[in-house]
């Protein structure tokens, strides 16, 4: 249920209303917009008398919300959320590119790529220290050493880092990581999501291979229900009957999620297609569709990459793509 207040409500009446609502064991999430303040009521609202609340002088409107996700719901929070990552803002008209290798391999590799992508316009650095792989015999990442190398690249370039967590037992290792990524395979690892809800770090939540958009939002709800509202959604392709691409990039997720939630949505054109040649057109399409950012795999030697080389683009290709992306952004801004 949401309660929309009139402009400049009487503070004493508002305090009395809040006290009464809390007496019914309801959690209240306050969202202050440019014109209205909205109270989002979470809990058993069946006992709340809508007519009684509507009759109050300070109340403009009361609505029941049918969707099972409350904190992530745009009806609770009409304004776009802006996630601030050490001064780098994502959402609410702020567009960012996250770039870097799929996996951290060597000090030379991650530092070289970090310098290159920063020079080309990337504002955050990605790189896997722990890698979930389909085969147990594939390269699994450098683990703690990979985290150390990412932090070294961060110190050298100033780029905030994004890397994936595999299990809640690793959480203590991520103290200096700027954005914790939850991969597609862990999207419904609810125990992990609950633990991440207790942190104060931005969480990049990737859509599961066969998950609906509502399931993605419910996973975000797990994190937000724990108190952490810094959630960034990521569409990275879903599994369909098509086999030419690694996955099928669901670009329709962008406008749909923009209607359903206030959370930022970024697109992963690398994992979704699995082909380096398709990264550019899908990045441009996602930008045109209104994404809040992109996460792109960039490797200085894709042919010899230890992980996901076929979908990684070179720093030179990223530089050309970045110019096109920002050119398109400027054009769309001018048109609006």
Helix content: 25-40%
Low-confidence stretches: none
Strand order of the largest sheet: 7-8-9-10-11-12-13-14
Number of helices: 10
Largest sheet: 8 strands, parallel, barrel
**What's the SSE pattern?**
EHEEHEEEEHEHEEHEHEHEHHEH
Shape: elongated
* Helix/strand structural class: alpha/beta
Q: How big is the Rg?
A: 21 Å
Distance between the termini: 34 Å
What is the average per-residue confidence, as pLDDT, rounded to a whole number? 94
Strand content: 15-25%
The tally of beta strands, per DSSP, is 14
How would you portray this structure in words?
This protein is of the alpha/beta class. 33% of the residues lie in helices and 18% in strands. It has ten helices and 14 strands. It has helices spanning 11-22, 50-54, 107-119, 144-157, 190-197, 213-225, 253-260, 269-273, 276-288, 315-335; strands spanning 2-5, 27-32, 37-42, 59-63, 83-85, 88-90, 96-100, 124-126, 161-165, 179-182, 203-206, 231-235, 265-267, 293-297. The strands form three sheets. Strands 7-8-9-10-11-12-13-14 form an eight-stranded parallel barrel, surrounded by five helices. A four-stranded antiparallel beta sheet has the order 2-3-1-4. Helix 3 packs parallel to helix 4 and helix 9 (276-288) runs parallel beside helix 10 (315-335).
